[in-house]
Amino acid sequence: MITPYYFTNVINSYLPEPHASLLNGILFGVSLNTSQAFFDQLKIVGLLHIVVLSGINITLLASIIASFTSFLSKKVSSVITILCIVLFVFFVGPKPPIVRAAVMGSLAIFAIIFGRQKSALYLLFLSGFLVLIFKFEWIKSVSFQLSYGATLGIILFGTAKIKGKSIADKIKYDVFKELKPSLAAQIFTAPLIFFYFKQVSLISPLSNLLVSPTISLLMIFGFLTAILGKINYFLGLIPSIICYGILSYIIFIINFLSKLPLVFLDFN
Q1: What pTM was computed for the model?
Q2: In this predicted structure, what is the pLDDT of residue 163?
Q3: What CA–CA distance (Å, rounded) separates 93 from 28?
Q4: How far apart are CA 33 and CA 44, in angstroms?
Q5: Contact 147, 104 (CB under 8 A)
Q6: pLDDT tens-digit readout, 136-178
Q7: CB–CB of 79/240 below 8 Å?
Q8: SS3 letters for the chain?
Q9: CA-CA distances (angstroms) from residue 249 to 16, 35, 205, 242?
Q10: Which residues touch 259 (CB under 8 Å, ≥6 apart)?
Q11: What is the pLDDT, as a whole number, of residue 26?
Q12: Higher model confidence: residue 6 or residue 101?
C-alpha cells in the first residue's frame, strides 16, 4: 500500500532540513523532523497550523484542484475535486481528524466556488450534528473544535469578491483570494488556542499575511517534486529548486519574526 512515506523520502533526497520537514508537513501532515527550537518558532509566529493536515490545508488543496479543472463545468469540477480529496484522505490515512478536516474543508471550498454562504453554513452545521451523533465524545476534541472553527471562519469571511474589472481590481482579488481563508480561520481559532493552551501569538496576523500567498504555489511544486522525483530524479529537480526558494523565504520570515520582542504571550 502506498503511504505518504513513499513520497517523503523523495522530498528528503532533494531538500535539507528544516526545508524538507516543512514541505512534508505542509503536503502530507507528517510530523516535523526538526529541532525543538524551530517547532517553538512556528508556535511563536502562529504558523504551526500549516504543517498539520487541517481544514485549511485541505481547502487549499481543493482550491488548487478546482482551479486546474475550472475549464470544465462546475458539476464536473466539483466531482473531480471530491474524488481527489477522498483519495488524498485514504492516501494519508483516514484518521478521525483527517476525515473531519476533509469534510469541513470541502464544505468551505464549495462555499468559495459557488458563493452560497447560507447553503455552506447549513451543511457545516448538519455535518457537525451528524458527526456528533456518530461519536459525541468528539465534541471535546480540540482538533474537532479547531477544524470546525477554522471552517466556519472560512465560510463566513473567506470569500474574496471582485469589485470592478480593472487590472488592479483583479490583482487585489487574487491577493485576497489567497489571504482571506487563512486569516479568517486564524481569527476564529485564536480564542480556542488561548483557552486551551493559554498562548497568544500577537505576530500571527502578520506572519500569515506574509506566508499564506506562497502556500498554494508551494503545494503545487511540492507535489510535482514528489511525483516526478519518484519517476526520475532529474524530473523533480527543477520543481524542487523552486520549492527550496519558497521554503527559504518562509523560514526567513519565521526566524526573523520569532526573534522580535513581545510577539508571543504565554500564560502557563
Answers
A1: 0.76
A2: 53
A3: 10
A4: 18
A5: yes
A6: 777 777 767 777 777 777 777 765 554 555 555 555 555 556 5
A7: no
A8: CCCCHHHHHHHHHHCCCCHHHHHHHHHHCCCCCCCHHHHHHHHHHCCHHHHCCCHHHHHHHHHHHHHHCCCCCHHHHHHHHHHHHHHHHHHHCCCHHHHHHHHHHHHHHHHHHHCCHHHHHHHHHHHHHHHHHHCHHHHHCHHHHHHHHHHHHHHHHCCCCCCCCCHHHHHHHHHHHHHHHHHHHHHHHHHHHHHHHCEEECCHHHHHHHHHHHHHHHHHHHHHHHHHHHHCCCCCHHHHHHHHHHHHHHHHHHHHHHCCCCCEEECC
A9: 14, 19, 17, 11
A10: none
A11: 86
A12: 6
Q: C-alpha grid cell for residue 124?
A: 457545516
List pLDDT tens digits, range 119-139: 667 777 777 777 778 777 777
* Cell numbers standing for residue 131: 458527526
Residue 260: all three cell numbers together: 522580535
